[in-house]
Amino acid sequence: MSQVDKDSVFTHFDGEGNARMVDVSHKSETKREALAAGNISMSAQAYALVKSGSMAKGDVLGVARLAGIMGAKKVAELIPLAHPLMITKTNIIFIFHDEDNSIEIQATVGISGKTGVEMEALTAVSLAALTIYDMCKAVDKSMVISNIRLLKKTGGKSGTFVR
């Protein structure tokens, strides 16, 4: 386990260690954006079917894109201490990696608000990957979802983060 910097503060806990929703009422609204990514690897057969749009269940990536967008809008219902947000944009792209039969999923989420959208971008990637798995599992149950991570975030008090 890694050590926590002595100046770090876990804001979702009060002085007694109880979970709490962070009070953001004093914060100014700023333009914020987060970019997250993840991968799903699969058999050559499943990969070829997804890439050609020939999977029996239909448009795998179109459905996965919608699932990711819908998931980004539902984060406050899924993650106990997340704030409900009025997201202003969500974009999901898919990048094919022929060398290892994997698809990279990237989600960008934006807001003008008092708190960031990192969880929304990470959730969008996760749900898009899970949807790809669901739609392709009849062909390949050995798919692996991996490396879900925040790539970049901008805005807010902490400024810009780039992995």
How would you characterize the overall build of this protein?
By secondary structure, the chain is α+β, with helices and mostly antiparallel strands. The chain has a single domain (31-156), classed as Alpha-Beta Plaits (2-Layer Sandwich). It has four helices and five strands; from the N terminus they run βαααββαββ. It has a five-stranded antiparallel β-sheet with strand order 2-3-1-4-5, covered by helices on one side. A hairpin with a 6-residue loop joins strand 4 (144-154) and strand 5 (161-162). The longest helix is centred in the C-terminal third of the chain and has 19 residues, at 118-136. The two termini are 21 Å apart.
Number of structural domains = 1
Quote the beta fraction: 25-35%
The CATH topology name reads Alpha-Beta Plaits
Sketch the topology as an H/E string, one letter per element.
EHHHEEHEE
